[in-house]
Hints:
With 283 residues, this protein is of the alpha+beta class. It folds into two domains: 6-81, Alpha-Beta Plaits, CATH 3.30.70.600; 85-282, Multidrug efflux transporter AcrB transmembrane fold (Up-down Bundle). It has eight helices and four strands. The chain has helices at residues 19-29, 55-69, 83-112, 115-138, 145-173, 184-220, 224-256, 260-282; strands spanning 6-11, 35-40, 44-49, 76-81. It has a four-stranded antiparallel beta sheet with strand order 2-3-1-4.
Amino acid sequence: IEFTGGSQFTVEAPSNRNQDIATTAVRSVLPNVTTKVTTVNNRDIRVQTAQLKSEQQSHDVAAALAKAYGVADDKVNTSFIGPSWGEGVTRQSLWGLAIFLALTFLILAIYFRTWKMSAASILGLLDVLVITVGVYALAGFEISPAAVIGFLTILAYSLYDTTVVFDKIRENTSEEGTKSSRTFGEAVNLAVNQTLVRSINTAVIAALPVGAILFIGAFWLGAQTLTDISLSIFVGIIVAAYSTLFVAAPLYSLFRENESGIRAHDKRVLEARDRATVSAVEV
């Protein structure tokens, strides 16, 4: 409801935290309304619905929840989030993402001295974002502001991992002249192999504490915000390790393989190999 607007009811510390009780209570007042019930801090019951039409409906729902859980009326807190606020959050999130990607593209283009490496990095970041959001949604979790923070945070991690790999690619391809015995694609593949173990180790080390936070937030404290942000970061770390090696690096190779200089270099390497093979056979 943070993005679409709606009504929220919080039942403070009921003795019975069965979520089905809340669903039944709300539907006794509004049979057709869709509800989302969660336990907050392993203590309270939070009920979220679409925006109700009147204060009387909100009062009736709050009273039904208080009666169902056997608590006083003042133990049920009611709050409202308007759709305009949700639209503002969505708009600011998209603006933040757009500015981040634009600045990242510019800085990487200056750092690597080629827009193609920068473009491959940005496409890798988008791949991380799309897959992470997809896995998050597929698991049935609601996209919340905390999850959005996690998504934006993981882009920074993915960018770091991509920069490490691309630095090695630049090192391997910077001397691709007449003395090189590898094609451009082989040099890129070598850089991926050289950084593979480091990328995996970095991902595992980063994922372990985030996984611990996820476990504590989801199963121990019952903190929804902590669960949302740690889940998005946990999934994003795993996806980023994959995307850097198997999406961003191959894309960079694809972007440059048709350049005249690269094609001429690859042709010289392959011809030299053919001559070496013929000489070996003749001997």
